[in-house]
């Protein structure tokens, strides 16, 4: 188990290649431009189920994948909760792609990974316009979602952990390195 975790950590540190989208052909993806996050500086609302002091939800949207959002102690699927992080836009936007990068913050790369989660695109009333359950971490490291067609009328992008390593570390928390939206 320890050898697998060390191998996983080495892959996470070395991996910067975007992964394939579930709806696309097997071809490399260009880096996510994060255009929608960059378009509204100072106007986005970042929320989450909980956070560790100084590692709030804004860390998942700061453009720096080695600075992560960490949940508070015991806010992990491994303990029966459903930790989540979200960004709310000041107006409706059209989402073409969301990339979620697994935790890469040193020295906490091992034992803090979200393994399976749900990405949701919500409208202004909180109704789900699109969702995808998928793996994050493990062999794939990241979650890459490109719907078959762009989703219009999106106000909030939310990611929720369904399976994680919260019980694999002394702080009993989990983390996301970055969430990019274009």
UniProtKB/TrEMBL annotation:
<keyword id="KW-0732">Signal</keyword>
<protein>
    <recommendedName>
        <fullName>F5/8 type C domain-containing protein</fullName>
    </recommendedName>
</protein>
<feature type="signal peptide">
    <location>
        <begin position="1"/>
        <end position="21"/>
    </location>
</feature>
<dbReference type="InterPro" id="IPR008979">
    <property type="entry name" value="Galactose-bd-like_sf"/>
</dbReference>
């Amino acid at each position: 188990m320890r050898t697998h975790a060390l191998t996983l950590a080495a892959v996470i540190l070395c991996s910067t290649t975007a992964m394939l989208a579930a709806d696309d052909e097997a071809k490399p993806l260009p880096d996510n431009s994060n255009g929608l996050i960059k378009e509204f500086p100072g106007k986005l609302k970042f929320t989450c189920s909980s956070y560790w002091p100084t590692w709030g939800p804004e860390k998942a949207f700061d453009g720096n994948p080695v600075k992560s959002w960490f949940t508070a102690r015991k806010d992990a699927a491994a303990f029966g909760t459903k930790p989540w992080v979200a960004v709310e836009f000041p107006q409706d936007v059209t989402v073409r792609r969301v990339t979620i990068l697994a935790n890469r913050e040193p020295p906490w790369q091992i034992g803090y990974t979200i393994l399976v989660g749900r990405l949701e695109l919500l409208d202004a009333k909180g109704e789900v316009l699109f969702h995808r359950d998928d793996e994050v971490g493990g062999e794939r490291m990241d979650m890459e979602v490109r719907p078959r067609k762009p989703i219009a009328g999106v106000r909030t992008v939310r990611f929720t952990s369904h399976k994680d390593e919260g019980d694999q570390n002394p702080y009993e928390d989990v983390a996301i390195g970055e969430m990019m939206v274009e």
